[in-house]
Request: fold
Amino acid sequence: MFYGSLFSITFISCIVSRNTREEFTKLINENIVLLGIIGVVVSLPIVILHNKWDNFYACVVSAFAWMGLFKNFSRMLNIPILEKYRKKKIE
Reply:
């Protein structure tokens, strides 16, 4: 519930204001390692507490949690090949 409302507020503000979108993009480009650490802090408890593979929906949640964990670990490591890919994707 908390994450849904937080993401909704963030993306509504990004849609409304062009300045907010530009600042958010600048934040992502400049602080990629910090965002990776925050992402690991968010996704690691989901992996630990919800690592269930019983039914379809539990598998989907667990798979997204693992993908988020791997993505954020790659952000934390700041691998040069992935950094070039991210910069190319943003431009």
